[in-house]
Amino acid sequence: MTLTWTTKPFASLTLSELYALLQLRSEVFVVEQTCAFQDIDGQDQAAHHLLGHTETGELAAYSRLFDAGLSYPEASIGRVVVGPKFRRYGLGRELLQQSIAAVTELFGEQPIQIGAQLYLKEFYESFRFQQHGEGYLEDGIPHIHMVRL
Predict the structure, then answer these.
(1) Distance (Å, rounded) from C-alpha 92 to C-alpha 87?
(2) What is the phi/psi pair of residue 32, to 5°?
């Protein structure tokens, strides 16, 4: 499966793009993971949004990108998500590669921090992220801070 990748600041998102990314995040983070939390957290406006669309225009993968000092002291990647029907095509790896490249292009070469769900630790380690600090619970899900130097 081939995706077309686009990175946009919040103000450049179309209403359809905004609706699709919020729908995807809700489908996975709220419904699939049965986690009642405030996804619309007031940080989307400060972020750049990486969108991976299929040939038919459907949003298959997404992440939110921040410059240093906005979400964490380092640049950061968050809300990393692949739609359920698009899994098993290697899109998670492609999404993270695209996210790291976009952070570097947008904000320059620098450390990148993520708040990772604990079960994905090895996945993120394969991209040179390292655990920093103790684990923590976020919305009832075990997480760890990880930094890529």
Answers:
(1) 8
(2) -60, -40
- Count other Cβ atoms within 10 Å, centred on residue 104: 13
Residues 71-115: tens digit of each pLDDT: 999 999 999 999 999 999 999 999 999 999 999 999 999 999 999
Q: What φ, ψ does residue 92 adopt, rounded to 5°?
A: -60, -45
Give the Cα separation of 10 and 113 in Å (integer). 21
Span between the terminal Cα atoms of the chain, in Å: 30
Please return the burial class of 45, using the count of CB atoms within 10 Å of its CB with bins 0-12, 13-18 and 19+. exposed
Q: What is the pTM of this model?
A: 0.94
Neighbours of 7 (CB within 10 A): 18
The whole-angstrom separation of Cα 67 and Cα 104 is 10
Spatial separation of the C-alpha atoms in residues 59 and 24, rounded to whole Å: 8
d(CA 92, CA 98): 10
